[in-house]
From TrEMBL:
Homodimer. It comes from Rhodanobacter geophilus. Pathway: Amino-acid biosynthesis; L-leucine biosynthesis; L-leucine from 3-methyl-2-oxobutanoate: step 3/4. Keywords: Amino-acid biosynthesis, Branched-chain amino acid biosynthesis, Cytoplasm, Leucine biosynthesis, Magnesium, Manganese, Metal-binding, NAD, Oxidoreductase. The keyword Cytoplasm applies. The gene is leuB. InterPro entries: IsoCit/isopropylmalate_DH_CS (IPR019818), IsoPropMal-DH-like_dom (IPR024084), Isopropylmalate_DH (IPR004429). Residues 4-343 form the Isopropylmalate dehydrogenase-like domain. GO terms for molecular function: 3-isopropylmalate dehydrogenase activity. This is 3-isopropylmalate dehydrogenase. Its cofactor is Mn(2+); Mg(2+). Substrate binds at R96, R106, R134, D218. Mg(2+) binds at D218, D242, D246.
């Protein structure tokens, strides 16, 4: 198949891990007979330096016209003045809003070979295979904000339609997995959570083959540590999702390992590793590219519907995590390029 993929390397380690991810997509194209056209644009601090804007209009235009967007990371100390008029993160928010990607997907698995890096013990980590679906465009992050002399407010607002569309995504995704959805809210206290719970339960009626369970966010924070193996798809609102997915990331052993996908109504999805720009290791060639490489598997799966190719990339990464080489965050000495080359070799073996 033919596909147009926009790359937004961004800041810090973003360009390093994105280059590795592009190499993997190029190898997939070669091995499986596809034609991927890459188009690189600026975002974040790099875009501010070059154009004054965190997401130049041309970049957003190109993203909207593409099949998928592969993002590195944005931000860094150079642009972190809180009083600055333009900040790198604004580019990311504008991109999400411009693409209308309302569901953020974060798969979590713990590779057996890396279990020692996790704060949890082996037996707890067995069978951990969770897909978080975080609502990305509503709630307190986007509600009206006010600040008085001695108070501040953040309005948390959700409409039924906003809850319904992300809940539907979660149930659809559960159908392709173990058919279990855990919906997380704070319905004993928050009105938005009562709307959330009622709407999710309503959507569940259309999916009689999927089991729905409700959890309060405080108990979910605990359950993720005490029995992470018992969850399949976990769907929740923006703020709760932000917190729970960072907690979950810690279980995997390193931030550098985990991918994410943001999808919406349109065909274009946004794919990025969950880690930030990692300024402390930027430019040294030591960043772990696995989170970015696994993001290409999500891209192949969710935007291009190339499931076999997605599985091949995941299997190649599994092989490298098992047999090495390992980057420094995983206790090894390998650089970004070493890990990339090992994944490329494992991919070639499987093609
Ligand atoms: P942001 O504010 O952009 O989300 P953050 O505060 O979450 O950033 P990161 O940039 O993700 O921080 O980095 C946190 C720590 O994890 C740093 O010490 C960084 O070096 C490390 N880290 C992040 N990504 C990687 C990676 N791909 N490989 C190795 N280490 C990483
Ligand atoms: Mg962060």
């Amino acid at each position: 198949m033919k596909a147009r993929i926009v790359t937004l390397p961004g800041d810090g380690v973003g360009p390093e891990v994105t280059a590795a991810a592009v190499a993997v997509l190029e190898a997939v194209a070669t091995h499986y007979g596809h034609e991927f056209a890459f188009d690189e644009h600026l975002i974040g601090g790099a875009a501010i330096d070059a154009t004054g804007e965190p997401l130049p209009a041309g970049a957003l235009q190109a993203c909207k016209a593409s099949d998928a967007v592969l993002l590195g990371a944005v931000g860094g100390p150079k642009w972190s003045d809180p009083n600055a008029k333009v900040r790198p993160e604004q580019g990311l928010l504008a991109l999400r809003a411009g693409l209308g990607v309302y569901a953020n997907l974060r798969p979590l698995t713990v590779h057996p070979a890396l279990a020692t890096l996790s704060p949890l013990k082996d037996e707890k980590l067995k069978d951990v295979d969770v897909l978080f679906v975080r609502e990305l465009t509503g709630g307190a992050y986007f509600g009206a904000k006010t600040r008085g002399a001695d108070y501040a407010t953040d309005e948390c607002r959700y409409t039924e339609a906003e809850v319904e569309r992300v809940a539907r995504r979660a149930f659809e995704l559960a159908r392709a997995r173990r058919r279990h959805v855990t919906s997380v809210d704070k319905a004993n206290v928050l009105e938005t959570s009562r709307l959330w719970r009622r709407t999710v339960a309503h959507v569940a009626a259309d999916y009689p083959d999927v089991t729905l369970e409700h959890q309060l966010v405080d108990s979910m924070a605990m359950l993720l540590l005490t029995r992470p193996g018992s969850y399949d798809v976990v769907v929740t609102e923006n703020l709760f999702g932000d917190i729970l997915t960072d907690e979950a990331a810690a279980l995997a052993g390193s931030l550098g390992l985990l991918p994410s996908a943001s999808i919406g109504e349109g065909r274009t999805g946004l794919y990025e590793p969950i880690h930030g720009s990692a300024p402390d290791i930027a430019g040294k060639g030591v960043a772990n590219p696995v989170g970015a490489i696994l993001s290409t598997a999500l891209l192949l799966r969710h935007s291009l519907q190339l499931e076999a190719e997605a599985l091949a990339v995941e299997a190649a990464v599994d092989h490298v995590l098992q047999h090495g080489p390992r980057s420094r965050d995983l206790g090894g000495h390998a650089g970004t390029a070493d890990v990339r080359d090992a994944v490329l070799a494992a991919l070639a073996d499987r093609a």
